[in-house]
Prior knowledge:
This protein is of the alpha+beta class. The protein has helices spanning about 20-35, 75-80, 85-100, 120-135, 200-215, 225-230, 240-245, 260-270, 290-295, 300-305, 325-330, and strands at about 45, 55-60, 60-70, 105-115, 140-145, 160-170, 190-195, 220, 225, 255, 275-280, 310-320, 335-345, 350, 360-365. The radius of gyration is 20 Å and the shape is globular.
Amino acid sequence: MEKPAVGETSGSSIGVDQSLVDRCSSIAYRHAKETFAHATPGIRIEGEDGGFANILRISGARLAITSDGIGTKIEVAERVGRFDTLGTDLLAMVVDDLVAVGAEPLAVSNIIDADRLDAETIDAMMRGLGDAARACGVAVTGGEIACLGARVGGYGSGSHVNWCATALGVIPDGREPISGRAIEAGDAVVALRNVGLRSNGLTLARSILDRAFGPLWHLECAVEGRWGDLLLSPSVVYARDVVEVLRSGADVHGIAHITGGGIPSNLGRIVAGRGLGARLDTLYAPDAWLIELARVGDVRPSDAYGQWNMGNGMLLVVPKGQAQRVVGALAERGLEARVAGAIVRGDTISVDARPWGFGVHEYPAG
């Protein structure tokens, strides 16, 4: 079940309290799971606890469903005055969760909550979502726009919105869901490069910049541009290309979509409880401005990898002998991918970030 947004924490590391996120997510999932036995006869829920999406078996067909949103990235768009890239972020959050369980995305429905409506803002948001959906081969089948007045806040004097979506996908006949249960020690971990923060870790980033530069932080310049423009960098959408890798017959044992909680939390979701960990020593480098952001905020190196994707938006776990085949297949489709490490026996995920000044850190595997 997706992780709800929570408030900032105090102390030397600001941002979300990941332990509280996990606790609240666990509570929510426990209540949701109590409804599984009461589903309509003929529908069976087969998803794994802690999975990126849940799986429904309906008359022999296996459908996957997931929900997510873009969180406080919407405030960055309000500051910059640009809304047409947010649809790419929204689509990435849900369809990349679907492909993480081996599903091929089919359709997306979305909900926009606004304090008041502005036609130009809605047009830009939905135009961006439509462009992203067409590129991914997904239909936007509907949604809702609700005016909630003062219940929705934001930056500036324009319209303020929150944006969430639910996506539906199908697991084709002959393909088993990808749960991580097939992962073995010795498997290779393939990293897919990402630019920017995707739609996660924005609370921490905004807090750092507000503290360092004040309320107009989005206009201040970083090493690669203005902070507002950098934080608005649209997410890479991996689903369509990973689907093609799955269709090619590649033996993918596990997929981790690196969202809230960074690498340790999300990779940990697919290896937890199996006596397995990972050694990651050739991950992609973080963007130069992300390294600068950590320095400006005096963020502990271990927290940076525990909050942000740090240049790695998705991890695929494959048999060692297939790793280069998968890397090559993704490269042919224009995605940057590399072997970033291996699955090992143990209960920790080791991240070697010394090339970028972040040291070596070990995290519990789940």
